[in-house]
Amino acid sequence: MLKTFFYSFLIYWKGTDKLYDYIIIGAGVIGSNIARELCRYQTKVLVLDKENDVANVQSLANSAIVHSGHNPEPGSLKARLSVWGNLLYEQMEEELGIPLLKTGAYVVAHNHHEEQELDKLAELARINQVPEFSILNYEEALLDEPNLSKTVTKVLSLPTTKVTYPWEVAFAAMENAIKNGVEFRKNALVTKIRKVGNVFYVTVNNNQEYQSKYLINAAGVASDDIAGMIEKKVPYTIKGRKGEYFVLDKRVKGFVNHVLYPLPTELGKGVLITPQFHGEILLGPNSLEVKDKYHPTTSYEGLTYVKENAALLADNIPINQIIRSFAGIRSTSDYDDFYIKESLEVKGFYHLGGIDSPGLTACFAIAKYLVEEVMNVGEIYSIDPNFDPLRKKKVLFNRLSLTEKKDLLLKEPLYGNIICKCEKITEKEILDAMHGPLGSNTIKGIKKRTRAGAGLCQGGYCEEKIIKMIAKEFNISPLEIAYDKEETKLFVAETKVKP
Ligand SMILES: Cc1cc2nc3c(=O)[nH]c(=O)nc-3n(C[C@H](O)[C@H](O)[C@H](O)COP(=O)(O)OP(=O)(O)OC[C@H]3O[C@@H](n4cnc5c(N)ncnc54)[C@H](O)[C@@H]3O)c2cc1C
Questions:
Q1: Which of 1, 30, 142, 173 has the fewest CB atoms inside 10 Å of its own CB, making it the most exposed?
Q2: Looking at the annotation, which residues are catalytic?
């Protein structure tokens, strides 16, 4: 008995003895897509993330835009991978069921000086091989964008700009990677890395160790800190840049049809107005360097700046429809481009540093670039003939036609019970989110997967119902249910004695 306990403890302490081919640190859109790309080969892959879910950091809080690739410096990785990434979204819509809203975008100019800048931007778009762009005068632009500010004189039209649903990009890639054999550990904070001989030893939560032949650092804002665990001189420093947003309720759907950009500055693409896949509209973001790159917070000053600058793009913004605000922190580095390279000091350790915007746009291309061109995985491992690139498209019940709804209801009556009234999310969709390949039993996890709680009432109506569903499905007490991480439990104690 004692002996069994001792050996179980030893296995827990040391982690698994399995040697992985690749360990990826970080399960945002970048790490998840790299995991999926590696499945094309006969490899054993483990993904570690400190969060209680996939896509909980930068990949959760951004503008959701698949940029056309019009403004990165020509010749940079950002330019090449964003134009390529934009194209790949069309393919991934088919393969993985990635949500895509084909909005196009307008970059606006307000005067002669800005029109000259717009011409320069169009020239950048040409050099970067952005398809189909053109300059339109105000009257032409107004035809498709009736609320465009009257102060606008010309726009650069970028028809290939689209909008996605960012965390679904990570879910889709990770679900498909898991289906193809990848292992994913959440709540796995990497605390130490060492390399002995040809093997990396990655310690998680200070007590478990995993081993791999290669190590990939896709840790977003933490990528320089992760690199610092194994390199003496990290080739870049992350300088977190905060972006704050307002969310307007989906009742304003159609207020703008395109992504509206101001002219870019050295701080980035500026405050935008962005229609979202599910109908809301985002105002933001600003761009402020922050000391604490791990804790995004909104501020009165930041959001006032957002409001004032959004007003330069469109007239009569329905500010009274704001339902929430949020902030995200970009993993901007002092390298001035994506840093996607093997370490100069430690063979087999790969950096994905400085993956700020347009990282969401470029994520599919970044994964392919790393696997095929930087790591040359095809020269090390054979192709896996069993790789299945397809993921079943999710049912979005509220988007179906009446006939489709009726047909589905006959097969599955639980689609008939609406749990989230604002977003019209059904009991069946919530159950699928709980028990899917990347299932969740937290309020935030269910919200990310289904949008239950993301609408006008922000969960005021449905949260209680979802708590009851989680308690029943996982056979746990409501006292054990968390909003997100273990330390965010919703209740501290019962207040009434049961009859
Ligand atoms: C405000 C804002 C707006 C943006 N808008 C756009 C846009 O419209 N279009 C666009 O293309 N791009 C945009 N971006 C950029 C885009 O969001 C990022 O490039 C992309 O999400 C980066 O993904 P990632 O996987 O590298 O990072 P993340 O999503 O941050 O993932 C990194 C992961 O590493 C994990 N991790 C960190 N440390 C550890 C550790 N010690 N142990 C284990 N795990 C760890 C984290 O938990 C996290 O899940 C925006 C970014 C921001 C912040």
A1: 1
A2: 67
